[in-house]
Structure prediction request, 326 residues.
Amino acid sequence: METALVTGANGFIGSHLACELVRRGFTVYGVHRKPKSKNEEYNRYVEEGKIVTFLGDVSKFDTSKLPDADYVYHIAGKVSLWGTLEEFKRINTGGTRNFLQYAKRVGAKCFTYLSSVAVYGFYGYKLLEEDGEKRPFNNPYSLSKLETEKMVCEYAAENKLPYVIIRPGNVYGEYDYTSSHEVYGRIKAEKMIICGSGKYESCWVYVKNLVEAIIFTAIHPHAHNTDYNVADGNTNLKDYLAKIAQYYGVRFKYTNFPAPLAKLAACLVEGTYKLFCIKKAPLITRFTVSQNCADYSFSTKKLETTGYKKLYSEDEGIKRTVDYFS
Prediction:
């Protein structure tokens, strides 16, 4: 029986990944900071002993305490639009280095790093391929993700460690309480707020399709030692949100802020937060506004050449998410 170690295993993406690995017959080890997950299936597998958990911060974790694993899926990381670069680098870069060293020590068949399309920046991309220029937005999350990608490539090459870098689009699905919960709730209540009229093209990926891409590229050696964009397709924000409203059976009612006004508001809000040293992330940031006020879609041709096939259409993913949050 093959083994897999998943960092951030009790989180949104990590828990879906860990559960799917169990269903495929893997022995799964999960590393995370909190004992419980919002994913009920994950908690049940832990109780049944099908997932063995280890608690700790990935940047400080003593990996000598871990059993050997055939595959290492590094999903954990600091995901926020607010904070200091030092803190992001400590967790995202330092934590990744820690588990790269673990993967080398145990002779893992593949090390998978979950990055983000945010490394490309927001400059009006349509179907951008993986070799496109990386000009991340000047915020600590994007900068730390790109720095960590470079470290993964360099470390893997120096130590002959097979690796995969995954860059998902906007991930949504069951148990997502980072963004989907609020967005779907606002649409259901007919209180959605958008900027730029929602006319710009963007990309979404249903979490179960993302998990399939993560597993597929890791277990197939011909897919190793490179990076992949992962998305289910590209559509504009307004059409995507309208589909959610359709499945809820409500009107797609929203308040629109013109792009220039939204960008100005974001600058003022961020400036206020910095002036008063407020640590909590503001409700509106330049990152989120910029992301929704420019075309932001990515080619998945490279991933498709590996033989990967998505399991669910966008409509199916949205419907399953609506059913969960209903």
